[in-house]
Amino acid sequence: MQESKNCELLFEYLRSILYDAKIETLNIFDLDEPYRKLGQGLQFLENAIGEMKSYSEALSHGNLSVDTPPRDNFLCENLKNIHANLNHLTWQAKQVAKGDYAQTVSYLGEFSEAFNTMTGQLHEREVSLKEEATREKAHANMLESYNQLLMQLIDRSNEDILVTSVDHQEILYRHQRTSGDTLSNELYVLCIRHLAEKNADPFQGEQAYEWIWETEDSLHRIYRITTGLMEWQGQKAYAHIIQDITEEKQREQKLTAEAYHDSLTGIGNRYFLIEQMEKLLNSKRQLTFCYCDLDHLKYINDTYGHLEGDWYICHFVHTMKKFIRKEDILARIGGDEFCLVLEGLPGTIARERLIDIQNAFDHTEEKPYPKGFSFGIIEIPANHDKLTVNDVIHQADYAMYQQKELHKQAYAPFLT
């Protein structure tokens, strides 16, 4: 029975050591002499387990500065290894934080893989950021040099230059060749209006960085403006390079007038007729085409001189204009050859009108010679088959010659 009591005390003590939060103490003198040494051993175990629990609790809370248990506590050996690994890992993490991405871990299994992957990615990110920083620095240096170059070019430029903020609220820079406030006011308003219209257009898509457009001010000056999105002193802005092209446009209009109009009469010439007729033929509209040839122009030139011949030509055009509509096309395609294009007017009415013109031409302005012209008419129906301008002219010319022969016989007594 005495043996059973000693075993009971020792077992309960061991159980309390292993499972109880608060360990029941063992009075060594409650044991018989042969069991006291075993009780002392359990007391040593209680102390070792207590040290292990306290040590593991400190480590679990991240307290790496905790004192390590004595070397004779064999239960804490693995915890000491973990403690040492955590201390080294903490040092490695601090090195990584300083930018040392060469740190690797090889003693913590899956954590090692995660740590090494992280440092690899951080290294790649650092390389990428350094490359980006290098590019940004180069870009900033380039912008600075560009800005310096731009300012030099602006100072030497013959164009007006206006730089506005992207919100259109502020003029950031103005370079004006001429005096006055036109550039800062009306042209500024025109630029802002153009940008508003461009941004509101759903078909513009993403806005281009540079585009060219033209506008006209209240004084009818015409400007060609190159607008570009740029960076101006650290902020996004629009630069407008403004050229006054009024004289250029006037020269273009003069050249166009010379290229498409007869210098003597001011009406269209052969090039003008061909261009207009090609558009009308492509539109498939109903047309009446009239080919007119002045009678005996050569006789007038030879007999009365070319100034009289010029008057004869101009008198014909002046008379013709009195009877045709504003939208009708009248062109001189040769010395004494003219074409009249009447849209939407039947051939019968066109014929009556040309007869009226013949009468008016002959009976105004008394001259010592008869005045007249011959004409031929062809009708071109709507939705007609494909025709060329030359086809139309040849057909009308052929129709005109029938009347021309009759006129030659009629005028023969007067021109001998």
From TrEMBL:
Q: Which Pfam families match?
A: GGDEF
- InterPro entries, from UniProt? Diguanylate_Cyclase, GGDEF_dom, Nucleotide_cyclase, Rev_trsase/Diguanyl_cyclase
Domain GGDEF residues, every copy: 285-416
GO MF annotation, one? diguanylate cyclase activity
Q: PANTHER family from the xrefs?
A: DIGUANYLATE CYCLASE DGCM-RELATED, REGULATORY COMPONENTS OF SENSORY TRANSDUCTION SYSTEM
Provide the protein name: Diguanylate cyclase domain protein
Which species expresses this protein natively?
A: Eubacterium ramulus ATCC 29099
